[in-house]
Amino acid sequence: MTNRKLIKINTKEVAVNGFAPHGVIEISMDGDVLHYECTGPFNRELFDAMAVAQMTFLANLKHPGPWASIAIGRESVMSSLDGIERYAELMKTKLPPELTAVATAFVMGPDVEGRTIMGPHFAKIYAEIGRPFKIFPTLTEAIQWAQTMVDASR
Length: 154
Hints:
By secondary structure, the protein is of the alpha/beta class. 38% of the residues lie in helices and 21% in strands.
């Protein structure tokens, strides 16, 4: 049997109990950047599924060195109040450095529902945990910034 690395995971692949997750997040790695393709709106259960998928992915990945994350918002980034509170709780969870991004960018173009409403909530969450965070209108800008942050942390 070969040692396969997980190259992509989706929150639909995570078993959940109780209320169904609203929204989908797909996680993949490209170089030093962990990408989250996020299609909302989101609820608490989706963020719980994301946490399980993320830990499964990162434990399998074993990335050699610092990395950054980029969340790409599709369609909507709206979340229920308990969803955003759960996301904040999850982000405050202390993880080993190899499982923690050195910086996080969000990509929310003008066509993404809720970007002006949810952007400040996400910015506050990342400020509270002390992680560099920026919102960009394009993926190209986010990747450039994320790679700069990874390079600076080496």
